[in-house]
Amino acid sequence: MEARHLRYALALAEHAHFGRAAAALGIAQPPLSKQIADLEREVGARLFDRTRRGVFPTAAGAAFLSRARRALDEITAASTDAARAARGETGRLRLGFIASALLAPLPDILHRFGRERPDVRLELHEMATRRSTAALVAGELDVAVGLGHPTGIGAERLLSVPIAHDHLVAVVSNTHPYAGQPSMDVDRLRHQSLIVAPEDDEPAIATALRNLLGTNSPPLTTATVARDIHTIIGLAACGLGVGLGPSRMLAAPRPGTWFCEITPRTPLPDLVLSFDTHNRSPALHAFLDITRGTRPTAAPALERHLSPPGATA
Fold this sequence. Notes:
It comes from Catenuloplanes niger. The protein has 2 domains: 3-86, Orthogonal Bundle (Arc Repressor Mutant, subunit A), CATH 1.10.10; 92-306, D-Maltodextrin-Binding Protein, domain 2 (3-Layer(aba) Sandwich). The protein has 12 helices and 12 strands. The protein has helices spanning 3-15, 18-25, 29-43, 59-86, 106-116, 129-137, 186-189, 203-213, 218-221, 229-237, 282-294, 299-306, and strands spanning 48-51, 54-57, 92-97, 121-126, 143-147, 158-173, 183-185, 194-196, 224-225, 242-246, 257-263, 267-276. The radius of gyration is 32 Å and the shape is rod-shaped.
């Protein structure tokens, strides 16, 4: 029994006439009559009474048609669901990210993704770059946003695309001697109590600070360690020292604090979006497409990945 048999039976019940039903289906009457007869033999019951007044469902036919209508509705729904999933309109997306990415540019990407793909289930996991890389390689994430290009076993399978550039800035309390100054010289940092992110979480920033201040610099070895940017800013607001972090901190102003540039300007590792190139998830494809439209600097690299095989620019 095929879906067309169900459609033929429903059309015959609707039109109560083989000729009219055949015309509505776009087939000749003899094939329709044969298909209905074949269906009745397969079911093992007469489904229609053929009378001079027309063709009408029997009791068996009425029971059959009720189920047939629901079955066709399910087939239609299944086809619709499959098409939506293939377009990345449903399913799930597992995203790992560092907390500072929520300052910029992740909010713009997530807002647009939620608006255009409201039926995709987002599974969001805040985690350090090193952990998100391992999760990507293990297949526990679909995409990750972290600092710098992933390294380690399996990282060669990942495609990494910079989505934001960054540099080092300082934050102090508005009662700090440097409050109100547009910049702070590196030499001054060597005489300050510092507040920094833990090296285990974000080794890329720790490396940049060691390169700037020296590997065994006393301010670094005695620095207060804060797990995230908001804690760095909060501790600085309390007057506990000079908080150091990425320029994305400027997007999180807090009363009682002052941000200033570090001179000379100290670049930090790029904020990088990474994913496994073998992951064919349509939801991932949709997320990358939205990222391409949201972050122009990432567009060329993502364009190459999203283009169909053999396509030319």
